[in-house]
Amino acid sequence: MKQQPRSDSELGAFRLSSWQTRIPGSILWGSSQAGNTILLASSGWMVSGLSGSPLLNGMLPALGIIPLFLGLKQNRNGYFFQIISACLLIGLAWLPIESGQSKSIVLVGTFIALFLHGTGKALSSLSLKKDLLDRPGSSSEKLRVGQDLGFFIGNLITAMLFPAIRQFLPGFLLLLPMTSSLNNNPQGSQPIPAQERPPLHGLCCLQGLVIGSLFALLALWVREIDGGKCFDFAMVLAAYRLGRPLMVWMPNITASTRYWLLILLLIVSQISPVSWLSVALFIPIGALISSSELNLINGLTKVKDSANRWRILESSSAIGGFIGSIGLGLFCQIFGLTWALPVVCVGLFSLALLHLRQPPTLQATA
Fold it and tell me: What's the confidence (pLDDT) of residue 307?
Protein backbone atom coordinates (compact mmCIF):
# COMPACT_ATOMS: atom_id res chain seq x y z
CA MET A 1 0.00 0.00 0.00
CA LYS A 2 1.33 3.41 -0.93
CA GLN A 3 2.05 5.57 2.11
CA GLN A 4 0.39 8.97 2.14
CA PRO A 5 2.90 11.84 2.23
CA ARG A 6 2.94 13.95 5.36
CA SER A 7 1.38 17.38 5.16
CA ASP A 8 3.45 20.50 5.80
CA SER A 9 1.77 21.01 9.16
CA GLU A 10 2.51 17.42 10.21
CA LEU A 11 6.14 17.75 9.12
CA GLY A 12 6.45 21.04 11.00
CA ALA A 13 4.99 19.50 14.15
CA PHE A 14 7.35 16.51 13.79
CA ARG A 15 10.40 18.76 13.40
CA LEU A 16 9.34 20.85 16.39
CA SER A 17 8.78 17.74 18.52
CA SER A 18 12.15 16.32 17.45
CA TRP A 19 13.89 19.60 18.34
CA GLN A 20 12.16 19.76 21.71
CA THR A 21 13.19 16.25 22.70
CA ARG A 22 16.85 17.09 22.08
CA ILE A 23 16.87 19.50 25.02
CA PRO A 24 18.26 17.53 27.99
CA GLY A 25 15.65 16.98 30.67
CA SER A 26 18.10 18.10 33.36
CA ILE A 27 18.38 21.53 31.69
CA LEU A 28 14.61 21.97 31.45
CA TRP A 29 14.13 20.82 35.05
CA GLY A 30 17.00 22.95 36.33
CA SER A 31 15.73 26.04 34.51
CA SER A 32 12.27 25.53 35.96
CA GLN A 33 13.64 25.10 39.49
CA ALA A 34 15.77 28.23 39.10
CA GLY A 35 12.70 30.20 38.08
CA ASN A 36 10.68 28.80 40.97
CA THR A 37 13.49 29.64 43.40
CA ILE A 38 13.64 33.25 42.22
CA LEU A 39 9.88 33.69 42.54
CA LEU A 40 9.70 32.17 46.02
CA ALA A 41 12.77 33.91 47.46
CA SER A 42 11.92 37.29 45.95
CA SER A 43 8.29 37.17 47.07
CA GLY A 44 9.42 36.20 50.57
CA TRP A 45 11.72 39.21 50.72
CA MET A 46 9.01 41.48 49.29
CA VAL A 47 6.48 40.39 51.91
CA SER A 48 9.00 40.93 54.71
CA GLY A 49 9.29 44.53 53.50
CA LEU A 50 5.53 45.03 53.25
CA SER A 51 4.75 43.67 56.71
CA GLY A 52 6.75 43.07 59.86
CA SER A 53 4.15 40.57 61.10
CA PRO A 54 5.77 37.17 61.75
CA LEU A 55 2.39 35.47 61.27
CA LEU A 56 1.85 36.94 57.80
CA ASN A 57 5.43 36.10 56.81
CA GLY A 58 4.99 32.56 58.08
CA MET A 59 1.75 32.17 56.13
CA LEU A 60 3.49 32.81 52.81
CA PRO A 61 5.36 29.47 52.49
CA ALA A 62 2.41 27.68 54.09
CA LEU A 63 0.11 28.81 51.27
CA GLY A 64 2.36 27.14 48.74
CA ILE A 65 2.13 23.85 50.66
CA ILE A 66 -1.69 23.72 50.98
CA PRO A 67 -2.31 22.40 47.41
CA LEU A 68 -0.23 19.31 48.23
CA PHE A 69 -2.96 18.24 50.66
CA LEU A 70 -5.87 18.63 48.22
CA GLY A 71 -5.42 15.32 46.39
CA LEU A 72 -5.26 17.00 42.96
CA LYS A 73 -5.11 14.81 39.86
CA GLN A 74 -1.81 15.07 38.07
CA ASN A 75 -1.86 17.07 34.84
CA ARG A 76 1.31 18.57 33.48
CA ASN A 77 -0.63 21.46 31.92
CA GLY A 78 -1.12 22.63 35.49
CA TYR A 79 2.38 24.05 35.04
CA PHE A 80 0.69 27.08 33.51
CA PHE A 81 -0.51 28.02 37.01
CA GLN A 82 3.14 28.70 37.81
CA ILE A 83 3.41 30.87 34.70
CA ILE A 84 0.29 32.79 35.74
CA SER A 85 1.73 33.19 39.23
CA ALA A 86 4.91 34.72 37.80
CA CYS A 87 2.89 37.13 35.63
CA LEU A 88 0.85 38.20 38.66
CA LEU A 89 4.01 38.84 40.70
CA ILE A 90 5.48 40.93 37.88
CA GLY A 91 2.31 43.01 37.79
CA LEU A 92 2.32 43.46 41.57
CA ALA A 93 5.96 44.57 41.52
CA TRP A 94 5.03 47.45 39.19
CA LEU A 95 2.37 48.81 41.55
CA PRO A 96 3.43 51.91 43.50
CA ILE A 97 3.43 51.43 47.28
CA GLU A 98 2.13 54.76 48.53
CA SER A 99 -0.32 53.87 51.28
CA GLY A 100 -1.44 51.14 53.63
CA GLN A 101 -4.18 50.19 51.19
CA SER A 102 -1.75 49.67 48.31
CA LYS A 103 0.46 47.58 50.61
CA SER A 104 -2.53 45.41 51.46
CA ILE A 105 -3.35 44.92 47.77
CA VAL A 106 0.21 43.82 46.98
CA LEU A 107 0.30 41.61 50.07
CA VAL A 108 -2.96 39.82 49.25
CA GLY A 109 -1.95 39.54 45.60
CA THR A 110 1.35 37.94 46.58
CA PHE A 111 -0.48 35.41 48.76
CA ILE A 112 -2.76 34.55 45.82
CA ALA A 113 0.25 34.23 43.51
CA LEU A 114 2.03 31.85 45.88
CA PHE A 115 -1.11 29.72 46.24
CA LEU A 116 -1.40 29.52 42.44
CA HIS A 117 2.27 28.63 42.25
CA GLY A 118 1.84 25.84 44.78
CA THR A 119 -1.20 24.59 42.89
CA GLY A 120 0.80 24.43 39.67
CA LYS A 121 3.56 22.44 41.35
CA ALA A 122 1.09 20.04 42.95
CA LEU A 123 -0.66 19.45 39.62
CA SER A 124 2.30 19.11 37.30
CA SER A 125 5.56 18.21 39.05
CA LEU A 126 5.13 14.43 39.03
CA SER A 127 3.87 14.31 35.44
CA LEU A 128 6.63 16.58 34.15
CA LYS A 129 9.32 14.62 35.95
CA LYS A 130 8.03 11.35 34.46
CA ASP A 131 8.02 12.89 30.98
CA LEU A 132 11.59 14.13 31.40
CA LEU A 133 12.76 10.74 32.66
CA ASP A 134 11.39 9.16 29.48
CA ARG A 135 13.80 11.20 27.36
CA PRO A 136 16.87 9.38 25.98
CA GLY A 137 19.85 9.67 28.31
CA SER A 138 17.80 11.07 31.18
CA SER A 139 17.96 9.72 34.73
CA SER A 140 16.86 10.62 38.24
CA GLU A 141 20.44 11.47 39.16
CA LYS A 142 20.79 13.92 36.26
CA LEU A 143 17.49 15.58 37.15
CA ARG A 144 18.65 15.89 40.74
CA VAL A 145 21.89 17.55 39.62
CA GLY A 146 19.92 19.93 37.41
CA GLN A 147 17.60 20.68 40.31
CA ASP A 148 20.47 21.47 42.69
CA LEU A 149 22.11 23.74 40.11
CA GLY A 150 18.77 25.42 39.47
CA PHE A 151 18.24 26.15 43.17
CA PHE A 152 21.74 27.58 43.49
CA ILE A 153 21.61 29.70 40.34
CA GLY A 154 18.14 30.96 41.23
CA ASN A 155 19.34 32.22 44.60
CA LEU A 156 22.40 33.85 43.02
CA ILE A 157 20.18 35.71 40.55
CA THR A 158 17.94 36.82 43.42
CA ALA A 159 21.00 38.18 45.22
CA MET A 160 22.37 40.04 42.21
CA LEU A 161 19.13 41.61 40.96
CA PHE A 162 17.03 44.10 42.90
CA PRO A 163 14.31 45.46 43.17
CA ALA A 164 11.60 42.83 42.80
CA ILE A 165 10.70 43.64 39.19
CA ARG A 166 14.24 42.75 38.16
CA GLN A 167 13.92 39.43 39.98
CA PHE A 168 10.44 38.32 38.92
CA LEU A 169 11.06 38.87 35.20
CA PRO A 170 14.05 36.47 34.91
CA GLY A 171 12.13 34.07 37.14
CA PHE A 172 9.30 34.12 34.61
CA LEU A 173 11.70 33.67 31.68
CA LEU A 174 13.38 30.67 33.34
CA LEU A 175 10.00 28.96 33.68
CA LEU A 176 9.31 29.18 29.95
CA PRO A 177 11.68 26.48 28.57
CA MET A 178 9.71 23.77 30.38
CA THR A 179 6.60 24.71 28.41
CA SER A 180 8.30 23.29 25.28
CA SER A 181 7.68 19.79 26.65
CA LEU A 182 3.98 20.28 27.42
CA ASN A 183 2.83 19.54 23.86
CA ASN A 184 5.51 16.98 23.15
CA ASN A 185 3.50 13.92 24.16
CA PRO A 186 -0.27 14.23 23.70
CA GLN A 187 -0.93 11.44 26.18
CA GLY A 188 0.98 13.33 28.83
CA SER A 189 -1.62 16.09 28.84
CA GLN A 190 -4.27 13.69 30.10
CA PRO A 191 -4.89 13.90 33.84
CA ILE A 192 -3.76 10.89 35.83
CA PRO A 193 -5.13 9.95 39.26
CA ALA A 194 -3.37 11.41 42.26
CA GLN A 195 -1.24 8.85 44.02
CA GLU A 196 -2.29 7.61 47.41
CA ARG A 197 -0.84 9.82 50.12
CA PRO A 198 2.13 8.14 51.82
CA PRO A 199 1.79 7.27 55.52
CA LEU A 200 2.79 9.95 57.98
CA HIS A 201 6.15 9.38 59.66
CA GLY A 202 6.69 11.16 62.95
CA LEU A 203 10.40 11.95 62.77
CA CYS A 204 10.17 13.07 59.14
CA CYS A 205 7.27 15.31 60.09
CA LEU A 206 9.19 16.80 63.02
CA GLN A 207 12.20 17.34 60.76
CA GLY A 208 10.00 19.24 58.30
CA LEU A 209 8.46 21.25 61.12
CA VAL A 210 11.82 22.41 62.48
CA ILE A 211 13.54 23.08 59.15
CA GLY A 212 10.39 24.63 57.68
CA SER A 213 10.09 27.03 60.60
CA LEU A 214 13.79 27.92 60.26
CA PHE A 215 13.33 29.16 56.69
CA ALA A 216 9.77 30.47 56.99
CA LEU A 217 10.85 33.60 58.88
CA LEU A 218 14.39 33.83 57.51
CA ALA A 219 13.67 36.85 55.27
CA LEU A 220 12.04 38.76 58.12
CA TRP A 221 14.86 37.78 60.49
CA VAL A 222 17.57 38.99 58.08
CA ARG A 223 15.70 42.28 57.54
CA GLU A 224 14.56 43.05 61.10
CA ILE A 225 17.12 41.38 63.40
CA ASP A 226 20.31 41.32 61.34
CA GLY A 227 19.58 44.55 59.46
CA GLY A 228 20.55 42.84 56.21
CA LYS A 229 19.47 43.40 52.63
CA CYS A 230 18.02 41.16 49.93
CA PHE A 231 21.57 40.30 48.85
CA ASP A 232 22.36 38.90 52.30
CA PHE A 233 19.13 36.90 52.42
CA ALA A 234 19.61 35.39 48.96
CA MET A 235 23.28 34.59 49.62
CA VAL A 236 22.29 32.69 52.76
CA LEU A 237 19.90 30.61 50.65
CA ALA A 238 22.56 30.13 47.98
CA ALA A 239 25.09 28.97 50.57
CA TYR A 240 22.53 26.54 51.97
CA ARG A 241 21.80 25.13 48.51
CA LEU A 242 25.50 24.89 47.76
CA GLY A 243 26.02 22.88 50.92
CA ARG A 244 23.27 20.30 50.38
CA PRO A 245 25.08 18.25 47.69
CA LEU A 246 28.25 18.35 49.79
CA MET A 247 26.74 15.86 52.22
CA VAL A 248 28.64 13.14 50.34
CA TRP A 249 31.82 14.44 51.99
CA MET A 250 30.32 14.57 55.46
CA PRO A 251 32.21 12.51 58.05
CA ASN A 252 30.48 9.46 59.44
CA ILE A 253 28.84 10.87 62.58
CA THR A 254 25.79 9.84 64.56
CA ALA A 255 22.37 11.24 63.70
CA SER A 256 22.07 13.12 66.98
CA THR A 257 25.49 14.73 66.48
CA ARG A 258 24.25 16.32 63.25
CA TYR A 259 21.55 18.19 65.19
CA TRP A 260 23.97 19.30 67.92
CA LEU A 261 26.21 20.71 65.20
CA LEU A 262 23.27 22.48 63.55
CA ILE A 263 22.45 24.21 66.84
CA LEU A 264 26.08 25.25 67.25
CA LEU A 265 26.39 26.59 63.71
CA LEU A 266 23.14 28.56 63.91
CA ILE A 267 24.25 30.20 67.15
CA VAL A 268 27.70 31.02 65.77
CA SER A 269 26.12 32.49 62.63
CA GLN A 270 24.24 34.97 64.81
CA ILE A 271 27.04 36.00 67.16
CA SER A 272 29.75 36.21 64.48
CA PRO A 273 30.79 39.84 63.80
CA VAL A 274 31.89 38.90 60.27
CA SER A 275 28.92 38.92 57.89
CA TRP A 276 30.51 36.71 55.22
CA LEU A 277 31.28 34.08 57.84
CA SER A 278 27.64 34.02 58.94
CA VAL A 279 26.65 33.40 55.33
CA ALA A 280 29.36 30.78 54.74
CA LEU A 281 28.21 28.79 57.79
CA PHE A 282 25.04 27.92 55.89
CA ILE A 283 27.14 25.72 53.60
CA PRO A 284 27.79 23.13 56.35
CA ILE A 285 24.25 23.76 57.63
CA GLY A 286 22.93 22.68 54.23
CA ALA A 287 25.16 19.60 54.22
CA LEU A 288 24.06 18.60 57.72
CA ILE A 289 20.36 19.00 56.96
CA SER A 290 20.70 17.04 53.72
CA SER A 291 22.60 14.22 55.43
CA SER A 292 20.03 14.10 58.25
CA GLU A 293 17.28 13.66 55.64
CA LEU A 294 19.22 10.83 54.04
CA ASN A 295 19.59 9.24 57.46
CA LEU A 296 15.81 9.36 57.89
CA ILE A 297 15.31 7.73 54.50
CA ASN A 298 17.84 4.99 55.25
CA GLY A 299 16.04 4.36 58.52
CA LEU A 300 12.83 3.42 56.72
CA THR A 301 14.07 -0.14 56.43
CA LYS A 302 10.61 -1.72 56.25
CA VAL A 303 9.92 0.17 53.01
CA LYS A 304 11.95 -1.52 50.29
CA ASP A 305 11.37 0.88 47.41
CA SER A 306 13.69 3.91 47.48
CA ALA A 307 11.20 6.13 45.61
CA ASN A 308 8.52 5.41 48.23
CA ARG A 309 10.95 6.33 51.01
CA TRP A 310 11.52 9.71 49.37
CA ARG A 311 7.76 10.19 49.00
CA ILE A 312 7.27 9.48 52.69
CA LEU A 313 9.96 12.00 53.62
CA GLU A 314 8.62 14.67 51.26
CA SER A 315 4.98 14.22 52.27
CA SER A 316 5.66 14.13 56.01
CA SER A 317 8.12 17.04 55.76
CA ALA A 318 5.53 19.10 53.87
CA ILE A 319 2.97 18.56 56.63
CA GLY A 320 5.56 19.45 59.24
CA GLY A 321 6.68 22.48 57.25
CA PHE A 322 3.12 23.78 57.06
CA ILE A 323 2.65 23.42 60.82
CA GLY A 324 6.08 24.89 61.55
CA SER A 325 5.62 27.95 59.33
CA ILE A 326 2.24 28.86 60.81
CA GLY A 327 3.17 27.78 64.34
CA LEU A 328 6.42 29.74 64.60
CA GLY A 329 4.81 32.74 62.91
CA LEU A 330 2.01 32.76 65.47
CA PHE A 331 4.42 32.23 68.36
CA CYS A 332 6.65 35.11 67.27
CA GLN A 333 3.60 37.28 66.62
CA ILE A 334 2.78 36.94 70.33
CA PHE A 335 6.22 36.84 71.93
CA GLY A 336 8.41 38.63 69.41
CA LEU A 337 10.65 37.73 66.47
CA THR A 338 13.74 37.41 68.68
CA TRP A 339 12.35 34.11 69.96
CA ALA A 340 12.48 32.50 66.48
CA LEU A 341 16.03 31.16 66.71
CA PRO A 342 15.70 29.82 70.28
CA VAL A 343 12.50 27.98 69.29
CA VAL A 344 14.21 26.45 66.25
CA CYS A 345 17.13 25.37 68.46
CA VAL A 346 14.68 23.72 70.87
CA GLY A 347 13.23 21.80 67.91
CA LEU A 348 16.70 20.66 66.82
CA PHE A 349 17.45 19.68 70.42
CA SER A 350 14.28 17.55 70.45
CA LEU A 351 15.33 15.83 67.22
CA ALA A 352 18.75 15.09 68.69
CA LEU A 353 17.20 13.49 71.76
CA LEU A 354 14.73 11.44 69.72
CA HIS A 355 17.51 10.08 67.55
CA LEU A 356 19.40 9.07 70.66
CA ARG A 357 16.51 6.94 71.84
CA GLN A 358 14.63 5.78 68.77
CA PRO A 359 15.82 4.99 65.21
CA PRO A 360 13.36 5.91 62.46
CA THR A 361 11.23 2.89 61.48
CA LEU A 362 8.08 2.43 59.46
CA GLN A 363 5.92 -0.57 58.75
CA ALA A 364 5.74 -1.37 55.08
CA THR A 365 2.34 -0.89 53.49
CA ALA A 366 0.78 -2.94 50.74
Answer: 75
